[in-house]
Amino acid sequence: MCFSVCQSCSQSFPCAGRSVRNTRLVWLHMCAENVCVCVCVCFNRRSYVGVELVQWLCEQCMYVRCRTTAVRVWQVLLELGVLLSVDQRVVFSDSNSYYQFSFEECDSASCEFRSNEGEWPEAVRLLLQLAPYADGVCSVWTHFTYTSEWLQSKHLQRLHSFKSTSVLSLLHFDMLTVPFSSRPQEAVGRVCLKERGRDVLVLRRVTSSVTSPSERYVVVSGTPLKILEHLLSDLRLDDQRGAPESRESEMLLDDFLLTYLVFMSTSDLCQALSARCRGQEEGKDALFRKRKVLQLVSHWSRLYKDFLKEEEHVRSFMKTLYRCVLEDLYEFPTLEKDLKEFQKLLRRRHFKHHNDSSSALCQSKPVHQQLSLKENCLQPRSPATETRDVICCVYVSTDSYLSVHTHPSMEAHELLRIVGQKMDRAEDDTVLAVVSQTGERRVLQPSDCVYSESLTPQGKLLACRRDLTEILPPLTDSAELSRRPVRLLGINTWDVAAALTHLDWSLFKSIHEQELVYYTLSRAPGTGHTAALSVLLQRCNEVQQWVMSEVLMCVSLNKRVQLLKKFIKIAAHCKAQRNLNSAFAIIMGLNTAAVSRLNQTWEKCPGKFKKLFSELELITDPSLNHKAYREAFKRMKPPKIPFMPLLLKDITFIHEGNKTFHDNLVNFEKLHMIADTVRMIRHCQSDQPGEFFSLQSELSSVHYLHIIDNQQTLFELSHKLEPRA
Question: Could you tell me which of 381, 257, 358 has the C-alpha nearest to residue 312?
């Protein structure tokens, strides 16, 4: 399938420029019928004053909101050669300078802009995509790549042979052919913005059946500042939102904010936004610029939530931005709404009022005084009490520990009570000790907090007797295991799966999208920026180890078979509850070498359970890049919990398999791929699960897991249960 000339003309900058020219000439003809003196003189000599061209465009086109924008549109026409300067100027001037139109025409009789005069506002809209870069300083280098059929069109040949000096100096058309099968349904155009002879921004034209006929250009690569400048210029304000172009602009902004840490620091971003807020534009351009910066910062803050509140330079930047916009409130009263919204954002994220009386005083003042008073009475918020979940590991023997899902403020006596209940030990006979790196054991007092101020354990925790010996001997002692009750057999499998899903969801919903980017970049699990993600990953590993431990600590063959059946059903229920994180962990736990080698146990497992397990194993099949898992997960509706290690693997492969910089330009297409993958978290969290009704027994069975963390112990137990033949 090749493109018709009409289709391509609708996206041709020269054709769009000629459409604006023709509309201007028709308008002059209409005016000449009524005002045949002054207008006809100007029309007959075919010269036009710059200030009148600007005024006409501002009045006639809905997409041109101010004179600065109109100047840039005419500058684009000047660079295209559609408009010519009488005194050979290369920069369009909103003054009494004279300009003339060239009379080059498109060879296509079916040119959309030529045949439909009503399309000229869309032509302006297309030209506005180049307007931010047409300032007489930067040169624009456009590469068009077309199918071989399109290269034969007379229109493109005409375009390539353009003789205008201004066009040849600023626009160069490089005809490249690509295999017809590579882009069967679109022609791809690239615009390269140069400064001082170097590329600083590369844009690509995107063709989509869901957008309006006016195509758009998206970022391919560029310097951080130019990418930010393009995104701000492309951003739609609240009164322009809702259109497909607006949604696409917001998505590109989302890509940038989710991944900017790959190529720049938060401090650099704050400095760049401060510079944009203090730009040199005046009038409406200055108003739009500040409104767009406010909208970007609001989006940034909503996206990062609590991530930004600890950044000192972010707090300083937001206060500076607030004062900067506040100073312009006298000149631009329409900023009041945006400023009030931003004020709420400041209070919610970083600040609080001293007292209610200050607020009451503020309400009695005019709006500019009110905002100023509130800005003065805002103070940094004191650090909030940490409420995130943690997983505490308490060793009960040399080769096993009790995993306790709890809160950071837990005291030693609370932890001892849980250990006593789970391990059938009297609380009075046990103490909690901290083991240092040198092996020294220090007993914690009952009221001592288990976690330090940095929310890390004070050391390796050990539940031991008062003589500081472990409460359990090594688990290879089968006599101890033979007396161990198998509590899981007495609990309904659906309830256990529901309890697992409830706990996993409580961890998963607290994960921020940015944690995946931080985790991929820093490789520092457990840091403040990846705390929730690290806990969920730890939980996934522990569920797998818990399955292995429960099976291998069960001495009775019949009970062991019952445990296999239980875990298979729990995994199936987790999948039905759209919790693939635990489902994956259970299946992998049953597939480990120490468990899968128990032939006698598996042979006694009924056939229907073996068949069910084989079906469940399919979602863990890594072939074709985990195709089975991806298809099954895609069919599930949110809320759902993905298998987090695989999601991190995807992001890591994108990050390490694609260069962050091409010719010193940020590879924005790579960032889009990372952001698209990271947004999976948002999609999965987009709905809330139903109520979980679980008894305390089910909750304790999954909140407190007895885990063997020694691989040698696991294999020894496996061989003791079923020795080699």
Answer: 381
